[in-house]
Amino acid sequence: MGRVVRLGRRPHTDLAAYFGRCVGAVAIVSTIVALAAARAPAARRWLFLLLALAGALLAVVHAIGAVRDAQPLSEDLEVTGYAAFALLALCCRPSGGQTP
Fold this sequence. Notes:
Layout: H1 14-37, H2 45-67, H3 73-91
């Protein structure tokens, strides 16, 4: 028949942990690519846009979490850091080239 729903059961959080691990893996890969690109930044201008967009989106996500009071204070303070990182990535982006 159907599935029995039991009250008082803990919420299933495996999906949230899974997404957290996935985002962590993407952050590690982005760091490795950025370190490799440091040898020739002008040839990899696209990476600066990628990092700026990632920083901006992280700032937005954490700002929403701060407004909703859904995260600890340490994550609320990360909004400024992520926004500064995004701005820094744009300011340090090499000029010239044909890539966007």
